[in-house]
Amino acid sequence: MRRPPHPVGSLVALATALTLTAAVAPVAHAEDARPTPGAAGIGDPLFPLSGNGGYRADHYTLAFDWQAPGAAFPAVTTIEATATQALSRFDLDFAGNTLGRVTVDGRPAETRRDGDELVITPARPLRKGRSFTVRVEYTADPTQQRHRDDAIETFGWIPTPDGTVIYPQPDGAKMIFPSNDHPSLRTRTTVEITAADDLTALSNGTLVDKRPAAPGRTRWTYDSRQPVAGQLFQLAVGKYTLIDGEAADGTRLRDAIPPDLVDRVEQYRSLTPRHLAWVTDRLGPYPFDGYGLLVAHTDLGVALETQGLSLLPKADLLGDKVNAERNMVHELVHQWTGDSVAIERWSDLWLSEGHARYYERVYSEENGGANLEALMREAYRQHDIWRRDAGAPAEPTEPNLFKRMRYDGSALVFYALRTEVGADTFARIERAWTTRFRGRAAGTADYVKLASQVAHRDLAPFLTPWLYGAKTPPMPGHPDWTVDPA
Questions:
Q1: What domains appear along the chain, each with residue ranges and CATH number?
Q2: Peptidase M1 membrane alanine aminopeptidase domain: which residues (predicted)?
Q3: Is the pLDDT of residue 18 over 90?
Q4: Torsional sign, CA 120, 124, 128, 129
Q5: Which H or E run contains 62?
Q6: Which candidate, 390, 423, 417, places its Cα nearest to that of 406?
Q7: 169 phi and psi angles, rounded to 5 deg
Q8: 3-class DSSP state for residue 393?
Q9: pTM of the predicted protein model
Q10: Is the pLDDT of residue 54 over 60?
């Protein structure tokens, strides 16, 4: 049995050591610190260059002057930031696109492209603690896409017959705008989209303004009161019918449906209030200002939990009711686990996808779908093979990050935990997780520690082999379950 790379005890020891180090280290005043380059990434082992060091992004203002499907168009990103060290230069994650003028506090800055990094050297170094503003002008390329050999397949700009949607997971936001593109780094965002009058523009958050921008063109402005991670950002332009509503708990609902699909998807689209009530009963109050479905004319193989506005390919709502509801509930659960409670590192993805798959399956069983125990027994049977091919739930590598282990294999961990501690204790653990870490990033060690606190017992010996072991542990209460040899 392998031990986790960051067991809870080690984290506590590390925190203690860092505290003692800080206590004896000499204090340097910000103005005395020698400016140095910010790190090109935040150190995620799976995506080493995702995010950037040396500053905190406080607010993005994104301006897109959309033209036509497949056509390049002018764009501007303005970033309000705070230096967390004395900076001689800093990076933004930025892939492709044609770079234009870049300024820092209104002064032209030197730039260079280094792969997916935009390296910016301001005219004057930035002292620690200073607020500064970066403005990046560029020409956006809405044909940019990348591909993965896992569940994601294609990500980036996704064309529709009359516009676009975007699929930025896992690290595709950098194809849309310069940013700190890591799931743990979230920023308040204002989005201005200008498009032809006969089109609708959509983004995360609340529509705060809509006005003529030029003859035949309209500017839509959205503001996200809650910060958004790059992988959860949405920018959609096209012909949509907007359907507003309100759930029983007061949550504002906003769906965007292509006009020719409105009647065809109505029987499933209208189920969102029921889904909200079901998930809220288990995970607590809905964590954002509003929620809705963005149904797109695309051939995407998978949906995406873009914050407050889940992206669903049309096929998800044109099939049978059981599968439609599974997909809808899966993306809705993500608003709590993955969106509100963000993952700290990509290796924590099991917490996001495992939760969504687990609750999707529980809901489905209660509403005419497959038997949960039978599904979990089948996942248990294959678990050693998945561990061999894709790593244990909390030990992925970058190429197999979105393999089945992070979905069904990780849902099995929650099923095992529920069986071990009992339904009532498990329910308290889950509610505590979404409450304590609401609006924050948290990782595997946080979950193990919290579960132990709620259960009043150390659950690390139980969860460690499930999350990190080379072999699948026995399933509590099911001594007859067997694992196929890997």
A1: 35-235 (2.60.40.1730), 240-331 (3.30.2010.30), 342-468 (1.10.390.10)
A2: 276-466
A3: no
A4: negative
A5: strand 55-65
A6: 390
A7: -80, 135
A8: coil
A9: 0.92
A10: yes
